[in-house]
Structures are given as C-alpha cells and as structure tokens.
Amino acid sequence: MTEPILSRDQILKIVRKTLKENNDRDKLSTQRFVDLAAAIEAAVLGKVFGEPIYQIGDGNELWRDVEKDDFDLTHHTRIVYALTRSKP
Q: Which top-rank group of organisms is this from (predicted)?
C-alpha cells in the first residue's frame, strides 16, 4: 500500500470546504480544526474498512482472546479489527 488513501484533490476539497465554513480566514478556530480533522478521518474511513479478526474480554482484569459464546454472554468484550483497504 504505497499509494495515498486520499488524493491531493480530495484533501484540498475538504480543506476548502472547512475554510469556506470558517469565512475563509487563514487561522482556523479550534472547533474548525476539529471539524477538519473529523472530515479527513471520515473520508479515510470511507476508503478503508475494518475486518474483525478476534474478540477480547477483560475477565480477571486481563484482556484475552474469547470465544464467540463468551462474547455473547457478556458486554465486557470488544472486537479487534484489522484495517484493510477497500476495493475501488
């Protein structure tokens, strides 16, 4: 994976939209910066997707792999995802 996830044009479009909503001021407010970061993150996540690889649970305060039955019985588990690039 050497090619960029977002093209320069896609990034510029996001930045221009954010600046336009900021009345084209050169300095971004903290909230506008957060909005910009969120927009870029959303665009990246639109290009990649998570693939569940295993589940972990916190039995005895230690995170460990768990079977599906354990996962179904308790809410103290979480799924671990591997990010992979989506197909074009």
A: Bacteria
- Among residues 21, 40, 42, 43, the alpha carbon closest in space to that of 32 is found at 21
Which residues are paired to 64 by β-bridges?
Answer: 57
Rg (alpha carbons) of the chain, rounded to whole number: 19
The DSSP code for 56 is E
User: Is the separation of the CB atoms in 81 and 50 below 8 Å?
Assistant: yes
Domain assignment of residue 2, yes or no: no
Tokens of 77: 């588990």
Per-residue pLDDT tens over the stretch 34-80: 777 788 877 777 776 665 555 555 555 555 565 666 656 655 556 56
Residues 60, 74 within the same domain? yes
Number of domains in the chain: 2
